[in-house]
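Budget justification aside, the reviewers requested a transparent look at the raw inputs and outputs of the sequence design task funded under Objective 1. We therefore reproduce one unedited record. The lines immediately below are the structure tokens for a 365-residue chain.
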């Protein structure tokens, strides 16, 4: 185990999302000392200054919980942040941390929230598919080459995310009531859920949440009653929206297929995908749409077998691993307990004529 002058070294990791964050402290012998929760650490939503302030506050709280002196710097700090995969933004955050909190860490590693999730579950590479407040899909090959699809924010992206699902439900019901685009499904459940969630009486009451009181996380939170409508109530409109979310998630994976190293497809499990985010809690509502696209396009894209994993611990653990690696250390963690399989399928069993039919269905959606 790595020690410094007879003392343990400490490594921090933060999984930062658009709504909430989590931090972990791992000792150099692989012992996890503390987890703490925190608010959003997405610099695109709250700015650089507030982001690093929240990171420092989480670090102080975690050190207190781990019974480590507050002035003890981390040997390495890994930040796996939503919106953290842009090089200039990474450098800006590093410089601000060094200037404002020089004793926070000796070494800082910053990348997107996808990297921490992958490092937690699949150290040898694979795909991370995120569907929380926002969405993103990232491939990391065994040679560390990286490619992404999505993750462009709620204005022009975030397909399949909680925000996208909520926005689509609201837009569909509103367009129906405006007689602009009639919905083939009853919109009453969505309207009733909207009034209850936002505590409003009618459509005009929604306007402050779209303008002066706009919060991405607040809108995304409306995904919860839509998920309940799909999973528990079997509301046709909610089911349709979640099915479409499953389709677009699968489409993200297909989009990355040409870049996937053949080594990631050759094992018994096929392509391993780590699924992160609260939207996957409603997998039963996503599954039909996801499978329709994978059956239609997966084999032709070279993806015959796929295995989906869900994390059993926070992606902050993977962030700490990456932070330690940046600092020249390897944390002796047992990764076998970090994730579990929740879905696997062999799409090569789908007859070619059925694939063509499924492909036509997908193109119409």
């Amino acid at each position: 185990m790595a020690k410094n002058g007879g003392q343990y070294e400490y490594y921090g990791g933060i999984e930062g999302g658009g709504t909430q964050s989590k931090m972990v402290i791992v000792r150099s012998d692989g012992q996890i000392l503390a987890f703490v929760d925190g608010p959003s650490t997405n610099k695109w939503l709250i700015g650089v200054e507030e982001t690093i302030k929240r990171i420092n506050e989480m670090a102080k709280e975690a050190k207190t919980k781990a019974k480590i002196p507050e002035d003890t710097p981390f040997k390495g700090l890994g930040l796996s942040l939503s919106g953290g995969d842009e090089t200039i933004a990474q450098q800006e955050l590093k410089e601000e941390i060094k200037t404002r909190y020089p004793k926070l860490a000796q070494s800082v590693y910053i990348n997107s929230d996808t990297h921490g999730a992958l490092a937690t579950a699949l150290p040898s590479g694979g795909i991370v598919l995120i569907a929380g407040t926002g969405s993103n899909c990232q491939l990391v090959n065994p040679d560390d080459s990286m490619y992404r699809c999505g993750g462009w924010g709620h204005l022009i992206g975030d397909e399949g995310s909680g925000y996208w699902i909520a926005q689509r439900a609201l837009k569909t019901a509103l367009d129906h009531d405006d007689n602009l685009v009639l919905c083939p499904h009853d919109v009453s459940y969505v309207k009733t859920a909207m009034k209850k969630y936002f505590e409003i009486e009618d459509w005009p009451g929604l306007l402050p949440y779209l303008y002066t009181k706009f919060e991405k996380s607040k809108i995304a939170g409306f995904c919860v009653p839509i998920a309940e409508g799909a999973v528990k109530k079997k509301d046709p409109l909610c089911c349709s929206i979640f099915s479409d979310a499953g389709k677009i998630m699968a489409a993200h994976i297909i989009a990355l297929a040409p870049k996937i190293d053949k080594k990631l497809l050759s094992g018994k499990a096929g392509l391993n995908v780590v699924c992160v985010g609260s939207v996957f809690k409603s997998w039963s509502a996503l599954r039909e749409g996801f499978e329709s696209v994978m059956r239609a396009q997966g084999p032709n894209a070279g993806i015959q077998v796929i295995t989906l994993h869900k994390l059993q611990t926070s992606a902050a653990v993977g962030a700490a691993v990456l932070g330690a690696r940046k600092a020249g250390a390897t944390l002796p963690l047992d990764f076998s307990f970090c994730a579990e399989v929740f879905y696997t399928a062999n799409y090569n069993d789908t007859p070619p004529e059925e694939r063509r039919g499924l492909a036509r269905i997908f193109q119409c959606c």
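The longest strand covers residues 20-27. The longest helix spans residues 236-256. Computational costs for records of this kind are itemized in the attached budget.
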